[in-house]
Write a structure and sequence with these properties.
It is an enzyme of class 4 (lyase). Specifically catalyzes the decarboxylation of meso-diaminopimelate (meso-DAP) to L-lysine. Keywords: Amino-acid biosynthesis, Decarboxylase, Lyase, Lysine biosynthesis, Pyridoxal phosphate. The protein has twelve helices and 21 strands. The chain has two domains: about 150 residues, Lyase, Ornithine Decarboxylase, Chain A, domain 1 (Beta Barrel), CATH 2.40.37; about 250 residues, Alanine racemase (TIM Barrel, Alpha-Beta Barrel), CATH 3.20.20.10. The strands form three sheets. Strands 4, 14, 15, 16, 17, 18, 19, 20 and 21 form a nine-stranded mixed beta sheet that branches. Helix 2 packs parallel to helix 9 and helix 5 packs across helix 6. It is globular. Helices cover about 30% and strands about 25% of the residues. The chain is α/β, with parallel strands linked by helices and about 425 residues long. The longest helix has 19 residues. It binds pyridoxal-5'-phosphate (PLP). The site of pyridoxal-5'-phosphate has 16 residues, from helix 10.
Length: about 425
């Protein structure tokens, strides 16, 4: 459920008419609903209310400072995957002891930054990383909490580009080798082993892979305890999917996911961390765009929008689907047309969706891409020197620009022509 609904034939975000935002800020523009974000976070809180837990929002899904501040104020921790994301979380007011640091390629500088600034735990993805972190922490006179990310070798049954828990993926340490790696960790200075970490992929629409992975984590936890390690925390990752098509059968709810956690690891007495990103912010955002041209091609009609693959990359990158709806609601019974919806970028991949059924559209009409809050703005670029897409946050009847569209002058001023040229 989200807070983007038609009122008197016009699409609103909470109590704000989206056409008003399009007119005030221009298009393309992302719009997020604070109420939807809050609601989704609350669902995870409720799903884990049986456990001592921390929900570490996956910053990479949507890292705008205003979104992070809102999440942090609700009590969320953060899962970061770079020094930049760590800085964002801190700038949004999230204390270091609520931030976990994941990622396969953490640099020494990034790790030092997080040690100095405060960190809840590092999720270690390889032995070389563990050695470097140990040397760094010891050199700084610190002892840092770590969990080792294990790769449980389960099929997450999701898109191959966002599956992370199979043995052929680059993530984590093979679970079969985990006891050896924990034994090594226990001998290293500057590290304090606190838990086990796992994350098997994104946009999961089936709970079964979770059940398999978490059962393996539970077995490992018992084995590690019998080896003498103190395992007090389990980081179970993110990945719970969202419905991208309104006609589709819905993916499992956070409450059902929480039950799987309880059934698989609930008896271990561990503090539970989860790292949802998409499920919190995905349906809390839309991308607004204006029709530039309606072009009649051979056997098909194109809707050429002012949004493009550089603003919303998911369709070009993963073949992902987003429902596209008009801001002016189509009247029941009105004639529908099928359009191939494309952007202006010079790539055939700049196609959002084919055969989209919409009322008859004209240049100047406005549309919304639904479910665009996650992996939308964060993946945007300025390809074709199209200004980085702006973002707006709505709460109740108010809205604010939370990232402004740069001017062309600002874009050009970031380049330098060397004086010897
Ligand atoms: C991407 C990622 C997440 C979030 O995944 P979602 O599908 O957005 O929930 C969580 N943890 C790690 C380690 C990730 O890489």
């Amino acid at each position: 459920m989200d807070h983007f609904n038609y009122r008197d034939g016009r699409l609103f975000a909470e109590d704000v008419d989206l056409t008003r935002i399009a007119e005030a800020v221009g298009t393309p523009v992302y719009v997020y609903s604070a109420a939807t974000l809050t609601r989704h976070f609350g669902q995870f809180q409720k799903a884990l209310d049986w456990a001592d837990h921390l929900i570490c929002y996956a910053v990479k899904a949507n890292s705008n400072l205003a979104v992070l501040k809102l999440m942090g104020d609700l009590g969320a921790g953060m899962d970061v995957v770079s020094g930049g994301e760590y800085a964002r979380a801190r700038a949004a007011g999230v204390p270091g002891d609520r931030i976990v640091f994941s990622g396969v390629g953490k640099t020494a500088d990034e790790m030092a930054q997080a040690i100095a600034g405060g960190i809840r735990q590092f999720n270690i993805e390889s032995e070389p990383e563990m050695e470097i972190l140990s040397a760094l922490a010891a050199g700084m006179g610190a002892t840092v909490p770590i969990a080792v990310r294990v790769n449980p070798d389960v099929d997450a049954k999701t898109h191959e580009k966002i599956a992370t828990g199979k043995s052929e993926n680059k993530f984590g340490i093979p679970i079969a080798r985990a006891r050896e790696v924990y034994a090594r960790a226990a001998t290293l200075p500057g590290l304090s082993v606190v838990g086990v970490d796992v994350h098997i992929g994104s946009q999961l629409t089936d709970l079964d892979p979770y059940r398999q992975a978490y059962a393996k984590v539970a077995d490992l936890t018992r084995a590690l305890r019998s080896d003498g390690h103190s395992i007090t925390r389990l980081d179970l990752g993110g990945g719970l999917g969202i419905p991208y098509r309104r006609d589709n059968s819905a993916p499992p709810l956070p409450l059902e996911y929480g039950q799987v956690i309880r059934e698989t690891v609930g008896d271990l007495g561990c503090q539970i961390e989860i790292e949802p990103g998409r499920n919190i912010v995905g349906n809390a955002g839309v991308l607004l765009s204006q029709v530039i041209y309606v072009k009649h091609g051979e056997g098909r009609d194109f809707l050429i929008l002012d949004a493009a693959m550089n603003d919303l990359l998911r369709p070009a990158m993963y073949g992902a689907h987003h429902d596209i709806v008009p801001l002016r609601e189509s009247v029941p019974g009105a004639e529908v047309h099928a359009y191939d919806v494309v952007g202006p970028v010079c790539e055939t991949g700049d196609t959002f969706s084919k055969g989209v059924e919409l009322p008859e559209m004209q240049a100047g009409d406005l549309v919304a891409f639904r479910s665009a809050g996650a992996y939308g703005a964060v993946m945007a670029s300025e390809y074709n020197t199209r200004p980085l897409v702006p973002e707006v946050l709505v709460r109740g009847d108010q809205f604010a620009v939370i990232r402004a569209r740069p001017t062309i002058d600002q874009i050009l001023s970031r380049d330098t022509i060397p004086e010897w040229l």
